[in-house]
């Protein structure tokens, strides 16, 4: 069995986001939001090279996962919002959390 690499996890997160948002999330969307080129993102998904720590942090934030999981795959794939309590919005505070 092939061990997943960074690019495999990156592509997996793009597919997860597409399913979660009920729309196709394209490389161009991610690249624009993260501030990188679409071709760089494609090279990363193909495991041709690795982005910097800063870019990995931005990608992890974009997908809502930890940088460690995206980089190494050693942690369970837990969304960040499950790891870090989300602050209540003003609306939730006024309505008692509902």
What does this structure look like?
With 98 residues, this protein is mostly helical. It has one domain (6-95): lambda repressor-like DNA-binding domains (434 Repressor (Amino-terminal Domain)), CATH 1.10.260. Helices cover 59% and strands 0% of the residues. It has seven helices and no strands. Helix 2 crosses helix 3. Residues 82-93 have low confidence and may be disordered.
SSE inventory with pairings:
Elements: H1 6-20, H2 27-34, H3 38-45, H4 53-63, H5 67-72, H6 80-83, H7 90-95
Structural class: mainly alpha
Major β-sheet annotation = none
- Low-confidence stretches are 82-93
Mean pLDDT: 80
CATH topology: 434 Repressor (Amino-terminal Domain)
Q: Characterize the overall form.
A: globular
- How many separate domains make up the residues? 1
- CATH-defined architecture: Orthogonal Bundle
Total count of helical runs of at least 4 residues: 7
The CATH superfamily turns out to be: lambda repressor-like DNA-binding domains
CATH class call: Mainly Alpha
In total, the number of strands is 0
Strand content: under 5%
| Order of helical and strand elements | HHHHHHH
Cα separation of the termini: 45 Å
Please compute the radius of gyration using only Cα atoms.
15 Å
Helix content: 55-70%
């Amino acid at each position: 069995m092939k061990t997943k690499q960074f690019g495999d996890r990156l592509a997996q997160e793009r597919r997860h986001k597409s399913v979660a948002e009920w729309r196709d999330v394209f490389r161009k969307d991610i690249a624009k939001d993260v501030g990188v080129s679409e071709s760089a993102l494609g090279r990363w998904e193909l495991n041709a090279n690795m982005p910097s720590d800063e870019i990995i942090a931005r990608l992890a934030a974009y997908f809502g996962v930890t940088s460690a999981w995206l980089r190494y795959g050693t942690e369970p794939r837990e969304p960040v919002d499950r790891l870090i309590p989300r602050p209540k919005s003003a609306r939730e505070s006024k309505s008692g959390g509902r």
